[in-house]
Design a protein that fits this description.
6 copies of one chain form a homohexamer. The first copy, chain A, is mainly α and about 140 residues long. Helices cover about 70% and strands about 0% of the residues of chain A. Chain A folds into 2 domains: about 55 residues, no CATH class; about 70 residues, AhpD-like, CATH 1.20.1290. Chain A is built from 6 helices and no strands. Chains D and F meet through helix 3 and helix 5 of D and helix 3 and helix 5 of F.
Chain lengths: ~140, ~140, ~140, ~140, ~140, ~140
Amino acid sequence: MSDTSDAGQQRFDRGMGVLESILGESGRGIIDRLADISPELARQIVAWAFGEVYPRPALALRDRQLVTLAVLTTLGGTETELEVHLQGALTVGLRPEEIVEALLHAAIYCGMPRAINATLVAKKVFGERGLLPVAAGDGTAGGS
Amino acid sequence: MSDTSDAGQQRFDRGMGVLESILGESGRGIIDRLADISPELARQIVAWAFGEVYPRPALALRDRQLVTLAVLTTLGGTETELEVHLQGALTVGLRPEEIVEALLHAAIYCGMPRAINATLVAKKVFGERGLLPVAAGDGTAGGS
Amino acid sequence: MSDTSDAGQQRFDRGMGVLESILGESGRGIIDRLADISPELARQIVAWAFGEVYPRPALALRDRQLVTLAVLTTLGGTETELEVHLQGALTVGLRPEEIVEALLHAAIYCGMPRAINATLVAKKVFGERGLLPVAAGDGTAGGS
Amino acid sequence: MSDTSDAGQQRFDRGMGVLESILGESGRGIIDRLADISPELARQIVAWAFGEVYPRPALALRDRQLVTLAVLTTLGGTETELEVHLQGALTVGLRPEEIVEALLHAAIYCGMPRAINATLVAKKVFGERGLLPVAAGDGTAGGS
Amino acid sequence: MSDTSDAGQQRFDRGMGVLESILGESGRGIIDRLADISPELARQIVAWAFGEVYPRPALALRDRQLVTLAVLTTLGGTETELEVHLQGALTVGLRPEEIVEALLHAAIYCGMPRAINATLVAKKVFGERGLLPVAAGDGTAGGS
Amino acid sequence: MSDTSDAGQQRFDRGMGVLESILGESGRGIIDRLADISPELARQIVAWAFGEVYPRPALALRDRQLVTLAVLTTLGGTETELEVHLQGALTVGLRPEEIVEALLHAAIYCGMPRAINATLVAKKVFGERGLLPVAAGDGTAGGS
């Protein structure tokens, strides 16, 4: 039941604020692309996911993005969402080395191909932000 | 064992008729693309899936396409097949609002990214048919 | 942000009504089991999934359960949820022959093992309700 | 459309012969369990999978079972099917060391948990056949 | 190639130390169960996953367990591993409220059933440790 | 812990030799693309997967590639990896007819869409090598 009440609008507005603060323009882009095909899906992502779940204080935003990246990596076929959430991960304070290490760690449990694919999306996002190369994460310089 | 008997040919012919009536040219296209790499896979899709399973009277074609869309959405990485089956879904009588609502509903169980991806494929298919915007499905006008 | 406002309570109450009318005691059971470990997950299932998405008029409850069964079958490892939603599927009017045929149909797209597993859960649920054997769905008597 | 023609019966009979020769009593058990809930699913597994696909000469039965084990391992949540197909794998000539090595190899691509779960099913099946311990597969004795 | 060199033994010993410090007896139990069926899988989990990947300083152990829980939840059918890693998550400092909130957060991306299943495993683990009920994570008391 | 010891270098060198002998230039390409984003992921693929697991004598390289193709097909969303490993499969002696038959066989267990997608990647790889059309695999000429 589309909640067009005042309370529903409040949740939507709060959600849009949270979404934009984490995901920026790229996150807003997905919502806009959905507007003429499934306005309710767009509304639920904003009002429910970002308006109700994300703002809960029980888990830091940084940790939420770590979980989000792990789930998207494991699912596979989520390159569009990964690109947006990798940007969000940087925004909420995850460092590039932490992100690529998290993907390496995920490989233990979801296998190499999922980790490779997510890492190549990270390469694209980090490259656009001038964050390459990422250090090896073990105190040595990058490169194999 | 490739069934080249008369009965096998009958099943293939029946299947091709069913496939073309539901999926039209786009469905035929996948079969054609498989012909020189795996003629038996092409043949089984036609003779078995469309020749044996689809025509069974126990489930309406409209319901079959609803199930097909839900499975393809959940699997992920099936954009090619989704595009074909979204066209089929419209052909057998599912309305655009029902389809996008089914994808929203699926999101409860398979998560937002799978639903977003399938919805964006629907946007492409519906757009090509002049079916955008889709109404919000709750009695209000489209748009968030 | 846990929505403890009047509007939030309304959504929860509406959701619990919808949940109980579709899933009955078994659905309520899952919510109860979550209460002491993740009250917010329980609340979101009720207030969001059943309070906001399920009641939307754009898709019939019968079709929602068909989609739900297809998603759960495809995901795999969801026996607990399947058992509850198979009961819900019967409650909202899907006939046993339609359900097992939907699972056979799903097998085309998600493979035989997922369909077999879901069908064996259906056997348990239907058996408890005295609905076995299910007819072959093609006008002939049951049995292979 | 249930194929109750002579050709359909031939395919079923051929399939049952193939199924029993590979999977033995345990494979027959799954078919029997499906008989009163979805006789058509049972029939399609036998007539299509085992009557049409398995007997094709293009791939050896041993290789088919290797593929089957890899797919079931990757899917997860398929313990029932894995148990049956592990027995089939032994029957068609895969050695225990090859099977456990295939599961280790699969871990590179589908992750450790899926490989662990399938390996523990293999432990059950091999244990019942007195095939434990399995050698380390590298020329050294078993044990870590 | 089973690495039975001194370096290989060092990696194994380091890995077993890390594994035991995080996962305790329950983690050791999985390794032991694998010993007579796939000693090399057991060895690789210890020497590679825990001996090489886990000890890398680029990601905190707490964050690794958060990623592990998210991947296992998304995969589904991993109850055995989840039980072990939920204990590990508590050991490395994730609080119960953080864990259940992470599973709620994951539900946005992988769907409710996967989150429910993982949360019910958490209920078992937390219950055995006297950690129930878990607070609602929003400043209010537990219970819906 | 990045293993920069002599033993670690040996494993890396051995792995790179195995990787290049199976996957050739295309496999090396993935490693190179990872170098500036996640040098450790690149190193682990080489040193662990190809340096430790692949060379073990317990399973023939041909069988390893068969397993790899089955896992990648089942996962879905792995087109990049499939392309590389299809080339590797040909290199280690799997015949084109065996490969497409393995994908047809996999369809029984993971469904038609995954098999279709992998087969279309095979069409691309085989086409570049002048290996089309592939024979039907049943003694008859190609084509449906």
